[in-house]
């Protein structure tokens, strides 16, 4: 990717990577574009006690608080990791990853012309969305309709069927399918450190931009929110810009911060709780509240316009039959407008399930500091919380202890049965000793006894199944070795990109399974009984109105006398 087009660009003129700052470009469209230059002064954050005062640049070592476990740490900037981030951002923006240079020729199917780029986008979307999401594939391509995508898929499907008639062997063996790369936790942690460095530098520059735009009110802390609320209540007009904030006139800002403090950032999981990340309570940038304010106005305007359009259409249609119809907006007009815009009628279900979604600990009687010596109360279950918020009786168990005891007894009995089964297998003569043979026999019994294949348990059938299962297991082992080597190679490249040494316990070399011959074979278990992989071919198209469970009831105009 051209360095001039990247979202983040490194300044080669500055050799000291440790002292760098972020300088935003003048292009308004590139809201996330930054140029790494010289370092800025730390300490531009606003504390709760003084929103406008800057913190000192340096503090003594004895007064330095210990770092929090989930707090981002600044380290050296890695330009190579920056380039990797730029490529990923570009792929995410275009919703396509075209790293592999595959030469696809252009072609024409009927009256539809497919260019090489459209084919790449088609197969990329097909691999991510599946062949049944036709609207999604067409949206990813952008230049082809759903009918054209369906036509292309039909041509490919017919070609596969024609090839199977001539040759039953698959195009690719299991080892030839690309698998996802797996990285060790140590490598992921090293990537997090490199990402934190870039994140901190960009956040520092964004803070400077916010301060220039909003002055002392750029970071809405609980103290500033209380001041804004007080000024709005007193209706004072001041020239410092605080009283002229549009979102402060519409929103109750202290409640927004309390939501983050009590709910959105108060999870029982340590990584999602603000107390493990920052010492000061949650705050919100003024730009964020301003965006919510613009969004609220936009949604309200659309809702009012849609409601007026629906009500006027209803009144115009009824006025032809009943001239005495009054020009009144009804409740059902608003409900129809909400439904047409795809909005939710209420947020009761959202708040009712918020404790489960946010992993909150909810108490009937919140514990206090004075009750620390006493026995701590257990939090309510999510079922109890949802039942309380929905005014329903919670479905509680008769006895929690009895349920736990019952689970223990069931687990103990299951372990005894498993142990006895293992003992029987080891003591009985003629049983297979090798673990591979045991696994093959289990799969044979599963096919013969527990599947709906309808295959008779004969000696010849067992031999045929055993041959096919052993072949498939060899192919799976070879595919696992190929995937392990691919992960090892990718992690080695990542350690080199991060300019760090891999952990000592990591193996130095892994044998390349690509040098081994592929386990190609025409034998597979599916040749004995069909697994119905082509189930979609037997489906019949139905229009949306044909899928309705009950007919649409006609509108009775006689019951609408209240509109007159």
From TrEMBL:
Query: Which residue intervals are annotated with compositional bias (Basic and acidic residues) in the record?
Result: 393-415, 428-439
Q: Which CDD domains does the UniProt record give?
A: SANT
Spans annotated as Disordered? 1-77, 363-439
For this UniProt entry, the molecular function terms from Gene Ontology, in alphabetical order, are:
rDNA binding; RNA polymerase I general transcription initiation factor activity
- Record domain Myb-like: where: 110-159
Provide one Gene Ontology cellular component.
RNA polymerase I upstream activating factor complex
Compositional bias (Polar residues) = 42-53
Coiled coil regions, renumbered to chain: none
Residue ranges, compositional bias (Acidic residues): 371-391, 416-427
Q: Which GO terms describe its biological process?
A: nucleolar large rRNA transcription by RNA polymerase I; transcription initiation at RNA polymerase I promoter
PANTHER family named among the record's database cross-references: RNA POLYMERASE I-SPECIFIC TRANSCRIPTION INITIATION FACTOR RRN5 (PTHR28079:SF1)
This chain belongs to the protein called Myb-like domain-containing protein
């Amino acid at each position: 990717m051209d360095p001039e087009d990247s979202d983040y660009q490194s300044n080669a003129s500055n050799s000291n990577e440790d002292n760098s700052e972020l300088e935003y470009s003048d292009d308004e469209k590139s809201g996330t574009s930054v140029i790494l230059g010289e370092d800025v002064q730390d300490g531009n954050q606003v504390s709760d006690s003084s929103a406008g005062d800057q913190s000192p640049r340096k503090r003594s070592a004895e007064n330095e608080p210990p770092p929090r476990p989930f707090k981002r740490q600044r380290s050296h900037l890695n330009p190579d990791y920056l380039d990797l981030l730029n490529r990923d951002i570009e792929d995410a923006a275009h919703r396509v990853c075209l790293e592999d240079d595959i030469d696809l020729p252009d072609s024409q199917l009927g009256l539809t012309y497919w260019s090489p780029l459209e084919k790449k986008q088609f197969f990329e979307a097909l691999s991510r969305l599946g062949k049944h999401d036709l609207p999604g594939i067409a949206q990813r391509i952008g230049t082809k309709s759903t009918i054209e995508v369906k036509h292309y898929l039909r041509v490919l499907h017919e070609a596969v069927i024609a090839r199977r008639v001539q040759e039953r062997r698959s195009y690719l063996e299991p080892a030839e399918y690309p698998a996802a790369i797996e990285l060790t936790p140590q490598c992921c942690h090293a990537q997090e450190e490199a990402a934190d460095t870039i994140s901190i530098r960009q956040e520092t520059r964004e803070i400077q931009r916010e301060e220039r735009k909003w002055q002392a009110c750029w970071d809405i802390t609980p103290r500033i929110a209380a001041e804004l609320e007080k000024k709005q209540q007193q209706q004072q007009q001041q020239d410092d810009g605080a009283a002229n904030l549009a979102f402060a006139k519409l929103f109750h800002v202290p409640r927004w911060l309390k939501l983050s403090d009590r709910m959105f950032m108060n999870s029982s999981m340590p990584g999602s709780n603000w107390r493990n990340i920052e010492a000061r309570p949650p705050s919100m940038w003024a730009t964020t509240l301003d965006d919510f304010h613009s969004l609220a106005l936009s949604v309200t305007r659309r809702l009012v316009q849609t409601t007026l359009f629906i009500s006027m259409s209803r009144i115009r249609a009824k006025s032809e039959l009943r001239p005495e119809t009054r020009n009144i907006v009804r409740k059902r007009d608003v409900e129809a407008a909400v439904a047409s815009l795809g909005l939710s009628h209420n947020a009761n279900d959202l708040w009712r399930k918020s404790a489960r979604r946010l992993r909150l600990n909810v108490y009937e009687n919140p514990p206090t500091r004075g009750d620390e010596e006493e026995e701590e109360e257990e939090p309510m279950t999510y079922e109890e919380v949802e039942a309380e918020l929905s005014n329903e009786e919670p479905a509680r168990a008769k006895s929690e202890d009895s349920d736990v005891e019952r689970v223990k007894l069931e687990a103990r009995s299951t372990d005894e049965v498993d142990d006895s089964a293992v003992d029987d297998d080891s003591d009985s003569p003629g049983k297979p000793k090798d673990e591979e043979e045991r696994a093959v026999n289990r799969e044979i019994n599963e096919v013969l006894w527990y599947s709906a294949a309808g295959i008779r348990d004969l000696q010849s059938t067992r031999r045929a199944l055993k041959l096919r299962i052993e072949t498939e297991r060899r192919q799976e082992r070879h595919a696992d070795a190929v995937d392990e080597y691919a992960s090892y190679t990718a992690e080695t490249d990542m350690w080199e990109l991060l300019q760090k040494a891999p952990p000592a316990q990591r193996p130095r070399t892994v044998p390349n399974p690509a040098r081994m011959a592929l386990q190609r074979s025409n034998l597979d278990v599916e040749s004995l009984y069909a697994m119905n992989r082509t189930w979609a071919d037997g489906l019949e198209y139905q229009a949306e109105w044909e899928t309705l469970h009950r007919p649409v009831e006609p509108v009775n105009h006689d019951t609408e006398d209240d509109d007159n």
